[in-house]
Design goal:
heterodimer, A: mainly alpha, 11 helices, 73% helix, globular, B: 108 residues, mainly alpha, elongated
């Protein structure tokens, strides 16, 4: 990562934890995990709590749908690390990697519900342009999405518009396919806490 | 507290911490990075890119900030503030649009 403190500035206890993760997972510790362990009182603790609430808290959207939103927002942001991480997680959650790839390749022709498609379209515009209007939201609601679901999707979008920026600014190192799949398994088992 | 309030409350706690909690960069500078407004010239490129084109951030953007005397811990905080700030503005814009759309439906 671009700041040395994010590569080396950890306490002995945290370094030991990283070593254990490497041994048990057989994979390097992802930079996304390292970031939230650096001075967690400043960012990591509260970021994890918000992200977990958005991604795993109660919602009419499935975990798979929310991971797909994370992958889609990351694609719009061109955040390679987060695209890799959440493409793998959504694929495992749906048990259908092809569906996730189809959404990222062409949202309009992908085999998903009209409500999810309208929601992803709105999240894409918000991410690209920084704003959306009432008309954009009316299209989401008229596709059968509830107000609560729209709010839940906006929380996912906020979490990943934050994380994507940090991944790219700090320069998260890309993982191998195996590394992303191992991370996905962890996120589906344990969430973001 | 409803489920949605828990999401919003968790987000507000994050925003409040990075802006107002203890830090190595001053609260005033963190607020400027959060808003992407009036940051010192040495931070223009870095903070501006984090807010609007994060995939374009380079080593040189960090080097320029360090050369002006900013420490790594300060840059850690300021980059986080810029990222949280931009995402927070988008979140608010989305929620406002949703409120307006629901009001239109109720009126209609």
């Amino acid at each position: 990562m671009r700041l040395d403190i994010l590569n080396r500035g950890y306490s002995p206890g945290t370094k030991l934890l990283f070593a254990l993760i490497r041994v048990f997972s057989g994979q390097p510790v992802p930079d996304a995990a390292k970031l939230v362990f650096y001075r967690p009182g400043f960012y990591g603790s509260r970021a994890k709590k918000f992200t977990h609430e958005a991604m795993r808290g109660p919602s009419a959207w499935s975990v798979a749908d929310r991971e797909l939103m994370a992958a889609y927002v990351s694609k719009v942001n061109e955040s390679a690390f987060c695209v890799g991480a959440h493409t793998a997680t959504a694929g495992q959650a749906y048990q259908d990697g092809a569906k996730v790839q189809a959404v990222l390749a062409d949202l309009e022709s992908a085999p998903i519900s009209s409500g999810l498609r309208a929601t992803l379209r709105m999240l894409g515009k918000l991410t690209r342009e920084g704003k959306v209007g009432a008309g954009d939201m009316r299209e989401v609601l008229s596709a059968g999405v509830s107000r609560q679901q729209a709010e839940d999707a906006l929380a996912v979008c906020a979490a990943f518009n934050t994380t994507d920026r940090l991944a790219d600014a700090f320069g998260f190192e890309l993982l191998s396919t195996e590394g992303f799949e191992a991370g996905a398994k962890y996120l589906l088992k344990r969430g973001y806490r | 507290m409803s489920d949605e309030d828990k999401k919003r409350a968790a987000h507000r706690a994050l925003v409040d911490r990075v802006l107002n909690g203890e830090g190595r960069a001053s609260p005033e500078l963190r607020a400027r990075a959060f808003g992407n407004t009036d940051v010192p010239p040495a931070l223009h490129a870095l903070i501006g890119k984090v807010a609007t084109s994060p995939a374009q951030v380079t080593d040189a953007d960090f080097d320029a900030a360090k050369a002006a005397g900013f420490s790594e811990d300060q840059l850690f905080e300021l980059v986080i503030c810029a990222a949280v700030g931009q995402a927070a503005r988008q979140y608010e814009a989305g929620l406002e649009a949703l409120t307006a759309a629901v009001a239109d439906e109720e009126d209609g």
